Amino acid sequence: MGKTALVTGVTGQDGSYLAELLLAKGYTVHGIVRRSSTFNTERIDHIYQGPQASRRTFVLHHADLTDGVALVNLLREVRPDEIYNLGAQSHVRVSFDAPLYTGDVTGLSALRLLEAVRASGSGARVYQASSSEMFGAAPPPQNERTPFHPRSPYGCAKVFGYWATVNYREAYGMYAVNGILFNHESPRRGETFVTRKITRAVARIKAGLQDRLYLGNLDAVRDWGYAPEYVEAMWRMLQRDEPDDYVVATGEAATVRQFVETAFAHADLDWSRYVRYDPKYERPSEVDALIGDASKARELLGWQPHVRVAGLAEIMVDADIRQVADQLAGATVRIDR
Ligand code: NAP
Ligand code: F7E
């Protein structure tokens, strides 16, 4: 019998890659989808078998991380071996506009889920999607021993989720781990995160559909990795004998400006002709530099990244160019000026 996993945030970037990985490993995967007025399953439609399929290894459930009773009921029904808590309001800039909501969904929901595990009598192992944003103002390189200094409501909420996870491990002997992941991107990255915003703009500029790209702080330093490689690290964390917390990162630093240069150059475009500054994309308090030291993950999980920032930018630009070409071939495209 294969294992059963429950994935919150299965419709997101990481959830979609993780579901693919677990299915390939023979798991039955249950995913939580929140109700929305438009379809929100675009990233997982290609692996969804439909409610009428004879043998379903990928099952979707309507629920919401803010509904603790629904979580308890779902855990009693699904009886997972592993739970991956990836659901979150994950946009840092938006967390300044919706701080209480972010605190609830991104922070308190981690505790809600841990408590639901206890209340349902589940012995499931729990992965909590913690973030390098917890380090915030702490100088790089950051590792598992670096003190947290979050710089946004999102970062504060993730610190709460981190400590709730550690506490349930210590208090109840639960197998609960934190993956402290640095920024990771892909062609499935949400369109308002900076990398995807840039690569999508490159593709649209190349196709003549857009002639400006407005950005905020170009000096921020990030450690950008490739999302499909990072979900492998999540899985490895839950296969160890003992639960523990791990930093997952490439260790390579780049500024937003360098990512812009690489992405535009890959499409033979001079970025300085198109990129303009708009203060609206600045944050009230910025995280200046995140560069991870993932030695522990390398040594204990045998995990290491292969895609580096330049290759990542190229993968994303190529994918966005293909997507724009497909749209132009088959549909009306709105022209943003
Ligand atoms: P994402 O693309 O923004 O996906 C977030 C997921 O959470 C989506 O499936 C979203 O559903 C779901 N969600 C939001 N609110 C919910 C609610 N109230 N109830 C149930 N589900 C809800 O994020 P990601 O990049 O895949 O990241 C996955 C996790 O890792 C997140 O917790 C994020 O904070 C964390 N993280 C990400 C990074 C990174 O660089 N990507 C780094 C460190 C940590 P909809 O599709 O309906 O919106
Ligand atoms: O910003 C700067 C911005 O929104 C990166 C989330 O997955 O990773 C992500 O959080 C940098 C920041 O990601 C624009 O000020 C400039 O310094 O792509 P981002 P993030 O804030 O690092 C962490 C690890 C997570 O956990 C989060 O869930 O880029 N920047 N101009 C801009 N950022 C955006 N979004 N848009 C701009 O126009």
- SSE topology string: EHEEHEHHEHEEHEEEHEEHEHH
Q: What's the rounded overall pLDDT mean?
A: 96
CATH architecture of the largest domain: 3-Layer(aba) Sandwich
The first-to-last residue Cα distance is 55 Å
The largest beta-sheet arranges its strands as 3-2-1-4-5-6-11
Supply Rg: 20 Å
Overall body shape:
globular
Count the E strands: 13
Level of helix content?
25-40%
- Structural domain tally: 2
CATH T-level topology of the largest domain: Rossmann fold
Judged by helices, strands and strand pairing, the structural class is alpha/beta
Q: Give the cofactors and ligands.
A: NADP nicotinamide-adenine-dinucleotide phosphate, ligand F7E
**Strand residue content:** 5-15%
Separate helix tally: 10
Written description of the protein model:
- With 337 residues, the protein is α/β, with parallel strands linked by helices.
- It has two domains: 4-185 and 226-248, 3-Layer(aba) Sandwich (Rossmann fold), CATH 3.40.50; 194-221 and 253-286 and 307-329, Alpha-Beta Complex (UDP-galactose 4-epimerase, domain 1), CATH 3.90.25.10.
- It has ten helices and 13 strands.
- It has helices at 13-24, 68-78, 92-97, 99-119, 153-172, 194-206, 227-237, 256-266, 295-301, 309-330; strands at 4-8, 28-33, 58-62, 82-85, 125-131, 176-181, 184-185, 213-215, 221-222, 225-226, 246-248, 254-255, 275-277.
- The strands form four sheets. It has a seven-stranded parallel beta sheet, sandwiched between helices.
- Bound molecules: NADP nicotinamide-adenine-dinucleotide phosphate (NAP) and ligand F7E.
- Ligand F7E is lined by residues 90, 92-93, 131-133, 182-183, 192-194, 197, 215-217, 220, 222, 256, 281, 283, 286.
